[in-house]
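Input/output pair, single chain:
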Amino acid sequence: MAGLGHCIVEAFIIIAIILGLTTIFEHCLFQLVVNIVGGTALIIFGILNIITAKKLQTSNVGRRLDNNSFIGGIFFTIFYATIPLWWTTIGLTMLNQALKTTTMLGVILWVLGHWSADLSWFCFVGYSVAKGKNHIGKKTHSFIILMCGIVLISLGIVFLGSSFNNNIHK
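Output:
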C-alpha cells in the first residue's frame, strides 16, 4: 500500500512535468520547504521509532502496530527531501528522453516500468520486514527499529542542515 501511495504522488509529479511545471521543483523556496518539512518529519518518525523500540523491549506480548501504509507512502513521498532532487535530475531527464524519442505510449510504458520497480522494492521491503521479525527475535527486532530510528533522525538533521546551508550560499 505504501508503494501505491508513492505512485499516486509520482503521477501528479509526472503530469506536472509533462505540462511544463518543472520550474516549481527547481525553485529554491520549494526545495527549502520540502527539506525543512521532510527533515522535521524524519526526525519525528525517528523519535517515534525509538519510542516503539523501547516499548517492544518492555512489553511481554507482541502487539501489532496499526498504521496506514497508503497514507504513509503519500506522506513520505511528498516530504522526502530527495524526491524533488531525483525528479529534477534523473527522472526529468529520463521522462524527457521518453517524450522526445517515443510516442505517448512509450512514455506510459516508461512510467509503468518505473512504478513496477518502485512497487517491487516496496513489496520486497514490506515482505522482508513482516516475515523477518518472526525469525529474528524480539530483542533483535527492537534493536533494528532503534537503529532505523537513529538513521531517520540523522537523515533529518542532514536535510535540515543542508537546506539552511544551501540557502546561506544562494
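Residues 61-66 have pLDDT under 50 and may be disordered. The chain has seven helices and no strands.
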